Amino acid sequence: MPRLVGTATADHAPERLDRVALALFDVLASKSQVRKLARKGRVRVNGEPVEPMTTVHPGDELVLDLPDHAGHQIALPLRVVFEDAHLAVVYKPAGLVTSGNRAKTLQAALLANLQPSPQPDAMARPHPVHRLDARTQGLVICAKTHAANVALGRAFQQRRVEKRYRALLRGRLDGEGLVEEPVDGRDAASRWRTVEITPAPMTGFATTVDLWPRTGRKHQLRQHAALLGHPVLGDDLYTPEGPLLRGAGLFLAALELRLRHPITGDPLQVEADEPARFEAFRARARRRMARMQQGEG
């Protein structure tokens, strides 16, 4: 039976079970689905079966056992950026959901890509301890042992994991700053810094930025970029005048993770290169602007 495992953080608890489960596991269909699973005894909090209206608190571990059709092992090659006996960091491609009851998920591909853990508390199935939106690509930490799972959950709960994203934004945005605006009624904060400004025919400019979310709300970086007046290129939800580059994907990637190793305590820094399509977009924009300027001349 496929299993979802996650730890509630201060970003989405204390709150009712169904709401926390939806926040943790982006592939669940609805709150009613969570309540049905709870009534069937397929939801546990800290190892104990719970009622549908249970309140979940920060640090609580949720386990949801899904029907057998909800997940399986698939042979999807993944880039493994870091791996040891306790955890792995893999690169999630854009368009792939992190976990849940779809046929093709990151979690379903882990067994075929990771080495079995020799530790006595090895998990039967490695699983992601956090998630990225389906359209966002980048680094995801996956626990391979129960001890690592608990410690990583606590690290995310206490906001001791630093994540850096790279995005292309619409328009010109100079300098650096901090956005502190609620997302879905909850406090949220994101730090940003400009990396490069590129002249672009469709928008005048496109700005490459690095982003550091201090909280972990759903779609937080996308919403905060839109609040700045510079939505992420390719965003189909938070661009009032409609998305540019329709069909080109979302220009948002998780490229760096900094944390203490959950077992050894050693500093752990994992990085990935910027997606090649980011520079490809900037190069095309520069060429088109050059041709336009030559035509004007």
Keywords:
single chain, 297 residues, alpha+beta, Structural Genomics Hypothetical 15.5 Kd Protein In mrcA-pckA Intergenic Region, Chain A, Pseudouridine synthase, ten-stranded mixed sheet, four-stranded antiparallel sheet, 6 helices, 22% helix
Note the overall shape.
globular
Helix content: 10-25%
> Main β-sheet, in a few words?
10 strands, mixed
Measured distance between first and last alpha carbons: 67 Å
Describe this structure as you would to a colleague.
By secondary structure, the chain is an alpha+beta fold. It folds into 3 domains: 67 residues, Roll (Structural Genomics Hypothetical 15.5 Kd Protein In mrcA-pckA Intergenic Region, Chain A); 90 residues, Pseudouridine synthase (2-Layer Sandwich), CATH 3.30.2350.10; 97 residues, Pseudouridine synthase. Helix content is 22%, strand content 32%. Strands 7, 8, 9, 10, 11, 12, 13, 14, 15 and 16 form a 10-stranded mixed sheet that branches. Strands 1-6-3-4 form a 4-stranded antiparallel sheet. The radius of gyration is 20 Å and the shape is globular. The N and C termini lie far apart (67 Å). The model has no long low-confidence stretch (mean pLDDT 89).
